[in-house]
C-alpha cells in the first residue's frame, strides 16, 4: 500500500530471497522523462546481441505483468503469482516487513530475472533514484535523462533538489551518462555527485525515442554488444503506436505526464487535431497543463476538445469537472464534449475528427492510453501478450 522512499524494506527482503538482484549486471536509468523509451531500446539492443535480457519498467498500461519483461515479452501471470507468493512469504518472516506495491513488483522482477538466467538487466527507476528500491541493483552503467519539476512533494521543491535525488543512482567508479541540462545549478549538482564518472550527453540528442538511439549506441560500445540498435515498440509510447486505431484517421498517442513532456509532444504536432484529454491526479496539475492551454488558445492545431477521465490505474483520475475548472483558471476558452467513459469519449472524438477532416490526439495520462489500448485489444481480438511485447 501507498508509497515509501527508502531502501530498508527491499534490502531486508532481497536478503531473505537470497539476493537475486546480484546475479546479473544492470543498466540503471533515472530521469523525469524518457526513461522508459531509453530502457526499452537498451533492452532490444541487448537481446539482439544474444543476451537474455530482463526489463523492469513502470507504470503498466493494461496488466501488471508488463512491468517485468524477459527479452521484451511480459512474464506470464502464473509465474508472476509464484513470485508474489515468495515475496509474501519473505515478508511474513519475523520481524515482518511489508513492501509497497512498487517494491513488490521490483522484488518479483528480480526473482523472475534470476529464474530466467538473465544476463543483462535494464532497470527503470520508479521515482527519484537515491531512495528508490531499484538503487539496489548491481549496475555497471547508469543513465540520467531529463530533469524537470515532478513529484516535488517527495523529491524536493526545486530542480537542484530533484537533480540530487535522480543523479544519486551513481555508484563510485561506475560510468553515468547524463543529458546536459540547461540549468547551471542542476549541472553543478550532477557533477558534484558523479565526479570523474560523468559523461555529459548533448541535449540536442535528447528528444524522446529517436534521440535516444545514439545513447544506446554508446552503451553498446562500452559494454561490447554486437548490436547497437534494433527496431522495437514501446506500447502506448513509441512513435506511430496506435496511429491506425481509427479507420481513415491518424491517431496520435501521448502518455505525457508533466509540463516538459506535454511541451515536447505538442511541439511535434504539424496537422490539425481533435484533442481527447484525460488526466491522473497530481499536485502540480495546473503547472502541467499550462503548455496545453497555451497551444489550445493559440488556435494553431486543435479543432475540438473532448474531456474524459481514466478508469484504470492505481492513482485517482482527475474528474471532468475538476479538469474543466483547472483549464478555465488557466485561461482556457471553450470545449466541445465530455464523457466519463474513456471508450465512449474516444468514439465521440473520433467522429468529430472525421467530420472535421483532421487527426485525433489522445493525451494526458498513461492510464487513459491503457484504457483505450485494452479496448482495442478486446475489440479486435488481439493476443494481449503479443500486443504488449516490445521486441
CATH superfamily of the largest domain: Mur-like, catalytic domain
Largest sheet: 8 strands, mixed
Q: Give the total of beta strands.
A: 13
Fraction of residues in β-strands: 5-15%
Please state the structural category: alpha/beta
Q: Which stretches of 5+ consecutive residues score pLDDT under 50?
A: none
Instruction: Look at the structure and give the mean pLDDT.
Output: 93
Instruction: Please give the order of strands in the largest beta sheet.
Output: 4-3-2-5-1-6-7-8
Structure notes:
- By secondary structure, the chain is α/β, with parallel strands linked by helices.
- It has 2 domains: 8-223, 3-Layer(aba) Sandwich (UDP-N-acetylmuramoyl-L-alanine:D-glutamate ligase); 251-388, Alpha-Beta Complex (Protein-Tyrosine Phosphatase, Chain A), CATH 3.90.190.
- Helix content is 40%, strand content 14%.
- The model has no long low-confidence stretch (mean pLDDT 93).
Amino acid at each position: 500500500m501507498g508509497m515509501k522512499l527508502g531502501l530498508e524494506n527491499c534490502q531486508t527482503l532481497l536478503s531473505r530471497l537470497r539476493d537475486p538482484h546480484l546475479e546479473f549486471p544492470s543498466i540503471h536509468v533515472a530521469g523525469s522523462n524518457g526513461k522508459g523509451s531509453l530502457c526499452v531500446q537498451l533492452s532490444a539492443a541487448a537481446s539482439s546481441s544474444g543476451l537474455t535480457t530482463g526489463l523492469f519498467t513502470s507504470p503498466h498500461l493494461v496488466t501488471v505483468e508488463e512491468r517485468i519483461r524477459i527479452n521484451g515479452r511480459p512474464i506470464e501471470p502464473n509465474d508472476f503469482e509464484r513470485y508474489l507468493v515468495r515475496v509474501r512469504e519473505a515478508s511474513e518472516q519475523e520481524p515482518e516487513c511489508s513492501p509497497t506495491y512498487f517494491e513488490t513488483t521490483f522484488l518479483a522482477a528480480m526473482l523472475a530475472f534470476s529464474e530466467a538466467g538473465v544476463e543483462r538487466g535494464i532497470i527503470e527507476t520508479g521515482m527519484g533514484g537515491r531512495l528508490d528500491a531499484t538503487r539496489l541493483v548491481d549496475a555497471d552503467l547508469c543513465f540520467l535523462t531529463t530533469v524537470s519539476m515532478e513529484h516535488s512533494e517527495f523529491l524536493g521543491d526545486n530542480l537542484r533538489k530533484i537533480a540530487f535525488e535522480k543523479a544519486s543512482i551513481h555508484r563510485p567508479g561506475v560510468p553515468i551518462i547524463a543529458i546536459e541540462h540547461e540549468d547551471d545549478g542542476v549541472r553543478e549538482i550532477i557533477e558534484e555527485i558523479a565526479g570523474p564518472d560523468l559523461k555529459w550527453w548533448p541535449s540536442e540528442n535528447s528528444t524522446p525515442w529517436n534521440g535516444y538511439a545514439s545513447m544506446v549506441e554508446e552503451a553498446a560500445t562500452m559494454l561490447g554488444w554486437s548490436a547497437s540498435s534494433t527496431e522495437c515498440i514501446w506500447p502506448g509510447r513509441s512513435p506511430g503506436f496506435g496511429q491506425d486505431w481509427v479507420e481513415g484517421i491518424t491517431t496520435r498517442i501521448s502518455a505525457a505526464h508533466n509540463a516538459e513532456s506535454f511541451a515536447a509532444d505538442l511541439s511535434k504536432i504539424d496537422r490539425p487535431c481533435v484533442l481527447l484529454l484525460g488526466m491522473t491526479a497530481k499536485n502540480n496539475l495546473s503547472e502541467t497543463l499550462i503548455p496545453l492551454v497555451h497551444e489550445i488558445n493559440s488556435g494553431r492545431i486543435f479543432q475540438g476538445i473532448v474531456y474524459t477521465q481514466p478508469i484504470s490505474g492505481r492513482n485517482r483520475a482527475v474528474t471532468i469537472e475538476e479538469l474543466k475548472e483547472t483549464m478555465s483558471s488557466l485561461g482556457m476558452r471553450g470545449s466541445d464534449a465530455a464523457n466519463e467513459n474513456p471508450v465512449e469519449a474516444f468514439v465521440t472524438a473520433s467522429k468529430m475528427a472525421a467530420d472535421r477532416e483532421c487527426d485525433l490526439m489522445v493525451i494526458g495520462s498513461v492510464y487513459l492510453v491503457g484504457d483505450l489500448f485494452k479496448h482495442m485489444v478486446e475489440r479486435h481480438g488481439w493476443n494481449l501478450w503479443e500486443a504488449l511485447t516490445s521486441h
